[in-house]
Every structure is written in structure tokens, then in C-alpha cells.
Amino acid sequence: MSMTRQAEPAVTTPPAPGPKQTDGRTARRSPALRLLARPEVGVFLGAVAVLVFFLFAAPPVRDGSSMANILYQSSTIGIMALPVALLMIGGEFDLSAGVAVITSALTASMLSYQLTLNVWVGVIVALAVSLGIGLFNGWMLIKTGLPSFLVTLGTFLILQGVNLAVTKLVTGNVATDSISDMDGFEQAKAIFASSFDVAGVQVKITVVWWLVFAALATWVLLRTRYGNWIFAVGGNKESARAVGVPVTFTKISLFMLVGFGAWFVGMHNLFSFDTVQSGEGVGQELIYIAAAVIGGCLLTGGAGSAIGPVFGAFMFGMVQQGIVYAGWNPDWFKAFLGVMLLGAVLINLWVQRTATRR
After folding, report:
1. Of 150, 112, 154, 114, residue with least CA distance to 133
2. Three-class secondary structure of residue 277 per DSSP
3. Taking the CB of the first residue and of the last residue of the chain, which one, N or C, has fewer CB atoms within 10 A?
């Protein structure tokens, strides 16, 4: 008779504690790398570099009134760059934004002057026209499925021709008549084109509006459902639609936001100079887009911020006025902008690769 012995379960010793193994996807990045991953960090560093450069290259920049002029130039670009940036985050861009500014100003000016109306009537009608242009761009994009480049290029050409032709037809000239003595002008100017004193320096009201709009846009992007929709439709509109994002509403409303920005800047131009040149605005759309790109917004959509374009617009204003204060040939301005654009894109690319490196 043989006896069998039941095997006892083996006792395993737990491995000694050691450093946690992680792969590149789960490794926790340092605060510095997470900061570098922010799209506005690169342009902030670039803006500081440009400011420091002109502080030494152009001593007049150090004066308070000179800095006020720089901020003013930056604000007229930045107010439009903000909605353009939101549109780019949503995966589209608008080539008609520059001439749409002039269309808005021409509408308000000619309607008020030719019909002898209170200028506020022209302002309200101009707002409706600007929103209508944005609505048309968004509706055409959705209904035809064409790229926004083609849709807004067509709108750009239409508005450019209409601005010139209608102005000549109505006024007999390429510019509108002055409306400075009409009812409501001073009240409208106080809102769109006034100045206020800060420590003896005259600062334009557009600087305040620029910062207010930037704060509002940042809140919308980071704290609202609509901001999530913008990022979603810019990243992948089909996936966004599959999870219930109203793609049509989001796209069209973003184009209408650009229309609102065009109206606001158009009103500033009108009430600053009393009259509007119908051939202006061509090429400004590239400035707005470049400010957004320099600010970290991707042309492919789905990424960006509202703060980045603020620094991008500041860089443009800094260079535009800094060249003048330095006594250089202003014809070099566009060349500087091109260098800034390429440099900012390369810096943003380097920052993103550094921040995501395993």
C-alpha cells in the first residue's frame, strides 16, 4: 500500500519594490514640459524677443505714447484675429475677412449719408450685412461641401468688386463722404474710436475692447460647451457629429463671429477717419490669419487658443510701428512679417516636439 503525499502550494515571494515601469504614453511629464505644450507659449516668447529687440533698436519705443500707438495698431489687428482664430480652431478660415471690414464701413457710411439718417441706423444695418456675409459663407460651406478656401475666395472677389463699384455708383468717387456732422456720430465715436488718458498718455478704446474680447473668447473656449464644440468640429467633424455635436450650427456661427469682428473693426475705421476708401482691406485677411497661426492655431484645425493670437497681433503691431520708430524703410514690413510667420511656425513645431518627447 503506497501512500501519496498531497503537494503543498508553492509560496511565492513578491518582488522587491522598485521604480514604476511606464511607457512613453503614460509617463508623467514635468510641469515645464506641460507648459511648453501650451500653444501660446511659443508666441509669448517670440513677442518678448521682438519687444526687447525694438527697445534697443528703436529708443522711441520706450516712450509711453509710442507704446500706446503700438498697442493701438495691435488692437486693430487683434480684434479681427480673435474670431479668425476661433474659426481656424474649428477647421476653417476666411479669406474675405479683410474686405468684409470695408464692406461694413461703406454700408454704414453711405446708408447714413445718402438717406440723411442717424448714423446708428447705418451701424445697425452694417451689423446685419456683416452677419449676413458670415451666414452666407457658412451656409455655402455646409451645403456645397467645398473647402472654405474656395468659398471665401469667391466672397472676397465679390465683395472687392461690390465695394468699388457701388461706392463709385453712389458717391461718384472711390471714397465715401464725411459723416462727422451727422446725428449720432459723436456717440458712436465714443464707443468705437474714442481715447482716454492714462498717466498723461492717450490710449485708444480699441485696446480695451481687444482685451475684453480676448478674455471672453478664452472663457468660451475653455469653460463652455460651445468651446468644446469648436475643438470637436476642428479635430474631426464626422466624429463630432456622431457624438451629438451640432456641426452645422457651430461652423455657421463661427463664420458669423468673423462677420461680427469685421463689423466692429469697420465701425472703428469709419468713426476714426469719417470716411472710407473703398479699395482698402485687400491683404488684411492674410494678416489676421498669420496672427492666428503665429499664435499657435493650426491650419488643420482642432488646436489653438485665444491668448496666442493676442501675442501674435502684438508682434505685428510691434514690428509695424517699431520699423517706423527705428527709422528704417517701411517697405520691409511685409518681409519682417514673413520671417516672423516662418519663425513662429518653426518655434511652435520645436516646442510641441520638445513637450511631447518621450
Report:
1. 154
2. strand
3. N
pTM of the predicted protein model: 0.86
**180 to each of 96, 186, 297, how far by Cα in Å?**
28, 8, 39
State the pLDDT at residue 9.
47
**Identity (one letter) of the amino acid at 180?**
S
Task: Give me 88's grid cell.
Answer: 481656424
Query: Which strand (E) or helix (H) includes residue 138?
Result: helix 119-144
The C-alpha cell at 9 is 502550494
Collapse the DSSP code of 203 into the 3-class scheme (helix H, G, I; strand E, B; otherwise coil) and give the result: strand
| 217 close to 211: Cβ distance less than 8 angstroms | no
Beta carbons within 8 Å of 56's beta carbon, 6+ residues apart: none
Whether 90 and 251 have beta carbons less than 8 Å apart is answered as yes
Q: How far is residue 350 from each of residues 41, 143, 345, measured CA to CA in Å?
A: 12, 38, 9
Segments of the chain with pLDDT less than 70: 1-39, 344-345, 347-349, 351-358
**Cell match 485687400: residue?**
282
Cβ 201 vs Cβ 65: under 8 Å = yes
CA 314 vs. chain centroid, Å, equals: 12
| Contact predicate 138/251, CB 8 Å | yes
Q: Which helix (H) or strand (E) segment is 201 a member of?
A: strand 201-204
